[in-house]
Each structure stands twice: as structure tokens, then as C-alpha cells.
Amino acid sequence: MTTHRAPNGAAGLARPVAAPARPSERAVTAALLVAASAGLAWIGGMVCTVVGWVS
């Protein structure tokens, strides 16, 4: 059986997936900030560990 898609102008199906406020974009930005800060904290911990080994 062949899949048939409706044209873009059919019965309001052409609206965007996300709302104009784009809450998904905000969530992705927040997740990236949390991940970046966790990565920086991990690097800081590794530096402290290596400094502790050397001294």
C-alpha cells in the first residue's frame, strides 16, 4: 500500500510544530548550559587531582 500525504494547505495541517515562544529551544539552551558547567567542573576537579599528585 502506498503512503499518501496531504498537501500543505489541507485543513490547518501546515502549522508549525512548536509554539512561537519556542519552549523546546529554551530547554535545549538550558541543557547545554548545565552540560557545559558540569564539564568545566569536571575539568577543574581533574586539575586539582593532578596538582595533588604532583605536590
Characteristics:
55 residues; mainly alpha; 58% helix
Description:
The protein is mainly α. Helix content is 58%, strand content 0%. It is elongated, with a radius of gyration of 24 Å.
Assembly of the depicted chains: single chain
Basic shape: elongated
Beta-strand fraction estimate = under 5%
- Given helix and strand content, the structural type is mainly alpha
Distance from N terminus to C terminus (CA atoms, Å) equals 72 Å
Largest sheet properties: none
User: What order do the SSEs take from the amino end to the carboxyl end, as H and E?
Assistant: H
Estimate the helix proportion, in percent.
55-70%
Q: Helical region count? A: 1
Stretches where pLDDT falls below 50 for ≥5 residues? none
Rg (CA only): 24 Å
Number of strands: 0
Mean pLDDT level: 80
Describe this structure in a few short sentences.
With 55 residues, the chain is mainly α. Helices cover 58% and strands 0% of the residues.
List the helices and strands and how they pair.
Layout: H1 23-54
